[in-house]
Design goal:
Elements (H helix, E strand, L loop, with lengths): L4 H25 L8 H11 L8 H11 L5 H24 L7 H12 L2 H5 L7 H20 L3 H21 L1 H16 L7 H17 L4 H8 L1 H4 L16 H13 L7 H23 L6 H20 L3 H7 L1 H22 L2
Length: about 350
């Protein structure tokens, strides 16, 4: 059973204090203890003018902030830390549990579970773009929820315009995330999710994916994937190679097991992440499938997004370190689905 609301609040406050202490340590002494990544260092160097090679729009945005005198690595670090520790958990809870007063335990469970997400916490310790993208992703879901609940056509159009604008920003920050959201919206608006068996949908999905690969329509993703062998030579490269249409399905399933579900036990950290991140994900997927009849429109959208976004990055990525940050959105989608289904199931059973 879910603990008492006061216990959940207390645990969240403790987490908030601990995160503040870690963020303070990172600001004063740096992140060497936590394995500071090259991305954050690169962003800072580009924003400061130390390097001129532009990698993505996030670096360009930080450079623009610096040009107008509004950039500070410590300031941005504090901003990201606040987003990760406060904004993201409460926004996720507001989406999963629409009526906080009726379901306070479920609401605070979501807040606490998102707060305990280790990968999200790590990327909130510096000027990585992942936490901001996560916040924008949740805003898309929030406005989509508003869209589904709106009755006036004018309000629907206004909400949809805001929603698409945020998707556009996400496209600039990480193209395949923005594309995945737009494709998911198109699928939901045009087709929805029919009441077919999940096994039938799964088989159709695998057959379609294999056909696209055999027809050469996934070559751009394969080309992007091949860059990992050159640009990221290191221990976290997986060397999962798609080189035959006959072996495409087994190879893709291997990529799913290793990158998405975390069946990668090279060291203590990888094993720990499997226990604290992958096991809850697997349990959440099983729960969602077993209670599919209780899904609402938003949950269906999250499932469509989970498949589309996961397919794109699982085909285009071959690095475990990158996979850990890419799958953040898949993990959050499943968490929101599980809680939404649980609340809906609980509400229906009480009638």
């Amino acid at each position: 059973m879910c603990p008492d609301v006061r216990v959940l609040r207390g645990l969240f406050v403790i987490m908030l204090v601990l995160k503040s202490l870690v963020l303070f340590y990172a600001s004063v002494y740096g992140l060497a203890v936590f394995g500071e990544g090259n991305d954050a260092d690169y962003y800072h160097k580009y924003a400061s003018g130390e390097v001129t090679l532009l990698a993505n729009s996030w670096a360009a945005f930080l450079k623009w902030l610096n040009d107008i005198g509004c950039y500070s690595r410590e300031g941005m670090r504090f901003f990201m830390g606040t987003l990760g520790a406060v904004a993201v958990p409460f926004l996720a809870a507001a989406i999963a549990v629409r009526d906080k007063r009726t379901h306070p335990k479920e609401y605070w469970c979501v807040v606490l579970m998102v707060s305990l997400y280790p990968t999200l916490f790590y990327y909130a310790l510096d000027i990585y773009r992942d936490v901001l993208m996560c916040c924008l992703f949740l805003l898309v879901l929030f406005f989509l929820q508003v869209f589904y609940g709106a009755r006036l056509a004018l309000r629907k159009i206004a909400v949809l315009a805001v929603l698409l604008s945020i998707c556009g920003v996400l496209f600039l920050m990480r193209p395949y995330l923005g594309v995945s959201l737009l494709l998911s919206l198109i699928v939901m608006f045009l087709f929805g999710v029919r009441s077919l068996s999940l096994w039938v949908l799964g088989c159709c999905y695998i057959i379609l994916l294999n056909a696209l690969y055999a027809a050469g329509l996934l070559d751009s993703l394969m080309l992007y994937r091949s860059k990992f062998g050159v640009a990221l030579r290191g221990g976290s490269n997986l060397e999962i190679v798609f080189d035959s249409s006959y072996w495409f399905v087994p190879t893709f399933l291997k990529s799913v097991l290793v990158q998405l579900f975390g069946f990668y036990f090279q060291g203590f950290l990888a094993t720990l992440l499997f226990v604290v991140e992958s096991v809850p994900l697997i349990a959440g997927l099983v729960y969602t499938c077993r209670n599919w009849r209780f899904v609402d429109q938003l949950s269906k959208f999250l499932c469509v997004f989970f498949v589309i976004y996961g397919t794109i990055w699982l085909l285009g990525n071959d690095n475990m370190g990158t996979a850990v940050r890419l799958r953040i959105f898949n993990y959050i989608a499943v968490l929101l689905c599980v809680v939404s289904i649980y609340v809906r199931k609980k509400t229906i059973s009480s009638l």
